[in-house]
Amino acid sequence: MAAVLTAYGRALASQFSARIMLLSLVPLLLSVALWGALLYTGLQPVIDWVQVLFTDYNVFGASAGMLGMLGLGMLKTVAVPLMAMLLLLPLMILTSLLFMGLAAMPAIGRHVGTRQFAGLEMKQGGSLLGSLGLSLGSVLLFVLLWILTLPLYVFPPLALAAQVALWGWLTARVMSYDALAAYASFDERRALMHRHRWPLLAIGMVSGAAGALPGIVWVGGALISVVLFPFLAMLSIWIYLVIFIFTGLWFQYYCLQALRELRTGNVGNVQSPRP
């Protein structure tokens, strides 16, 4: 736990430097270009599709009754756009995470490595293609698991716990690889991700919980006006990227410190964990 908190403090100190903040621009521009085009051409069809589903399966009546019991009857008029936002939100997060991993994590690795771990040998155990393959595979598995957890929204606290756990797993898996790709060998990376799986998952879950903030901004737009959706989407993506960059710094500091300790104590005696 001390190592996790130490890495957190270092990441927080680095987060607001001009160089690190500029790292959010490239993935932001990529995400805005992608989602600007998708929302412009596809937002209304998604809302229309959800409207048809609500009508065909009498979801309007069920949702109105449930919201009424919770004292939120005023939300029934925005139930359709709200559901559309909930469907789009995970896709926005996933694309932001992919762009961040490809465009920002290598720069974060260089920033942290040269400043704090200058003497650490770079063994290049990972690659851009490896990162892309791991990210895409993890995202596909995440989407499948996310779909399977949708019925849990009947009991919101359980759904929230499941979502935090899923985001924690995905974030830890993707960012741990990227944090160690340039510095650790294949065996070192496997060993570290196995030995430190619980601290890494904890960092991912805390970061996933922090990711609820831009979700509130995005979904909250449904309570104001559909016209604001594109602008709130852009704001949400940027907030996600800032959170992801901080998360990347947190993983980078933690993983490189763990790698240095591994080499100091077990140089030449690193084996892959048993499956």
Secondary-structure map with pairings?
Blueprint: H1 2-15, H2 18-22, H3 25-56, H4 59-69, H5 79-103, H6 105-116, H7 128-149, H8 156-180, H9 186-195, H10 197-210, H11 212-220, H12 229-266
Helix pairs in contact: 1-12, 3-5, 3-12, 5-7, 5-11, 5-12, 6-8, 6-12, 7-8, 8-10, 8-12, 10-12, 11-12
Walkthrough of the structure:
The protein has helices at 2-15, 18-22, 25-56, 59-69, 79-103, 105-116, 128-149, 156-180, 186-195, 197-210, 212-220, 229-266. By secondary structure, it is mainly α. The chain has one domain (2-264). The radius of gyration is 21 Å and the shape is elongated. 35% of the residues are buried.
List segments where confidence is low: pLDDT < 50 over at least 5 consecutive residues: 267-275
For the sheet with most strands, the description reads: none
Round the mean pLDDT to the nearest integer and report it: 78
Number of domains: 1
Strand content: under 5%
Could you say which overall geometry the principal axes of the C-alpha atoms support? elongated
What level of helicity do the residues show? over 70%
What's the total helix number?
A: 12
In short:
With 275 residues, the chain is mainly alpha-helical. It has helices spanning 2-15, 18-22, 25-56, 59-69, 79-103, 105-116, 128-149, 156-180, 186-195, 197-210, 212-220, 229-266.
